[in-house]
Amino acid sequence: MTLTRRRTLRLLGAGAVLLPAVGLGLPRLVASVTGAKTDTVGKVAFTNEVKAPPLAPSRIDGDGRRVFDLDIRAGRHEFVPGKPSPTWGVNGGYLGPTLRARRGESVLMRVSNGVGERTSLHWHGMHLPAVMDGGPHQMIEPGTTWSPTWKIDQPAASLWYHPHTHGKTAEHLYRGVAGMFLIDENGGGDSGGDDASGPLLRLPHRYGVDDIPLIVQDRRLTDGVLDLAEDMAGTTGFLGDQLLVNGVVGPYLAVTTERIRLRLLNGSNARVYHFHFADDRPFTLIGSDGGLLPAPHTTPRVELSPGERAEIVVEVEPGERLVLRSDEPSTGSGFVQHDGGSDRFDVLELRAAASLTPSPALPARLADLPRASAESATRTRTFELSEHHINGQQMRMDRIDFGVRKDSTEIWDVRSGDGTLHSFHVHDVQFRVLSVDGDRPPPELAGWKDTVFVPPGRTMRLVIRFADYSDPDVPYMFHCHMLYHEDQGMMGQFVVLGPGERPGSPPSRTVPSHEGHGS
Ligand code: C2O
Ligand code: CU
Ligand code: CU
Predict the structure, then answer these.
(1) Phi–psi pair at 514, nearest 5 degrees
(2) What is the pLDDT of residues 356-406, one digit of tens each?
(3) Verdict on whether the full-model pTM lies above 0.70
(4) At residue 514, does pLDDT exceed 60?
(5) Using a 6 Å cutoff on CB, does residue 309 contact ligand 1?
């Protein structure tokens, strides 16, 4: 049984009581009957050490491509010692290894599906041909291997990968299929090459030592077993009552350097995190989804909706213990109600060694970004996210919603029209935020983004350039990254068109009949 299915049954069962409120629309109706608050602040014993996920081994093939073997499989993972839970993972029980490649390199991914039902692996944040994207049109049948290849050509960044099976993304990701995909600049720098002297080298960059990806997810465990029932679902989908970092419950991270770089990924189904330290100390935000910010930004807080990433650098004192927390998301104006909206969590404890290795001071400038500008935009589109629809339409695998021109720039205005929180993601591109409700974006939104938090009543104006790849038939997705919304159809498809091309139709063999699966 799937996350969404069991939830639907429960709602139907409750229908008699709730029918009078149906005019409010389903999401708000559900919000009105849930509302237990989860608060783990001060209650988490940080007893389990968390480390950076392992780096995936790779090899170079005869064509000079970096080859990764990724095996999506069902397995077991001990969230609670001695109580193994059934899980899914990549090359392991839960989550997957960190992939790492340089700008300019070509990669070949060999992705095999061992979970007994069709799934996919999507490279979130990657600029690549649509047919390599791993979205719902690139399903991997059970027992088969999919081998996409492309050339990495984008700035150093913390991207990630996860399944994208239409109607099942929430479940597949919840079971544990996800991992980081780090891009390094060509010619040294981020991964410790010694032939560059740019700002990257002055940032903490020793993987697993002072440079640690942290995949933050909320889950519910029943006697140590990953609980797939969605009892806490409401407006947003699954909300768990425990936080996992890299699959570890009650995590602490040993810190051995004065400064540590944390690459935070919100890998949750529905939850928005508002991270801060227990003592509210400022830290330095250095990067967003698609790469480094133009300059470091000092702040005590950073907010991430599902799918978003932030790179931060934290300074610690010898011997101290410091707790990373999360509290209520900012909710914009016109807020109706949000399940889990007042939840608070202890996320992770940083444990600094009694003596710390010195870290260099952070550079004053990080990256040269083009000015975000509407000047070259040739068209404006509006996206209203509301009640599992975008502009009143639900995702259809066989409908391409629009085509954009290759080498063109567009403005996309995105807003939440239903009083709840959303997270808007576009495949293939890294965009810039031009304005938030007409104002200049805050510093945390000054860099490259592929996913953006959309609170109620707020209009995010994005400027997006489409370049390099076109295909009139194979679409890229745009969607809400709250996975229940996405699975319910808050998603659409666009194609990038070459000169003279018109939108075609997606190859029909790629249309999965997800309705018939998993029951
Ligand atoms: Cu993170 Cu369409 O995906
Ligand atoms: Cu994506
Ligand atoms: Cu949404």
Answers:
(1) -65, -20
(2) 999 999 999 999 999 999 999 999 999 999 999 999 999 999 999 999 999
(3) yes
(4) no
(5) no
Calculate the CA dihedral of residues 109, 115, 117, 121 and round it to 10 degrees: -30
Nearest ligand to the CA of 125 is 2
Ligand nearest to the CA of residue 265, numbered in listed order: 1
Please state, in angstroms and rounded to a whole number, the distance separating the CA atoms of residues 408 and 143. 40
Q: Counting atoms of ligand 1 from 1, which one is nearest the CA of 135?
A: 2
Angle at 68 between CA 63 and CA 69, to 5 degrees: 120
Q: Which residues pair with 439 in a beta bridge?
A: 436
Domains of the chain: 1-33 (no CATH), 379-497 (2.60.40.420)
Report d(CA 379, CA 377) in Å as an integer: 6
Which letter, b or e, does each residue of 235-266 get, where b requires 16 or more Cβ atoms within 10 Å of its Cβ?
A: bbbbbbbbbbbbbbbbbbbebebbbbbbbbbb
User: pLDDT tens digits for 226-280?
Assistant: 998 765 456 678 889 999 999 999 999 999 999 999 999 999 999 999 999 999 9
Contacts of 140 (CB under 8 A, 6+ apart): 72, 111, 112, 113, 118, 119, 120, 121, 146
172 lines ligand 1 (CB under 6 A): no
Helix (H, G, I), strand (E, B) or coil at 12: helix
Q: 339 burial class (0-12, 13-18, 19+ CB within 10 angstroms)? A: buried
Q: Give the residue, by CA position, lying nearest to ligand 1 atom 1.
A: 124
How far is the centre of ligand 3, averaged over its atoms, from the C-alpha of 67 (Å)? 35
Answer yes or no: is the C-beta of 485 below 6 A from any ligand 1 atom: no
Are 340 and 303 in contact by the 8 Å Cβ rule? The answer is: no
Nearest atom in ligand 1 to 124's CA: 1
Instruction: State how far the Cα of 238 lies from the Cα of 246, in Å rounded to an integer.
Output: 18
Asked if residue 510 lies in contact with residue 197, where contact means CB atoms within 8 angstroms, the answer is no
Q: How many angstroms is it from 128 CA to the middle of ligand 1?
A: 14
Rounded to an integer, the average pLDDT of 8-14 is: 35
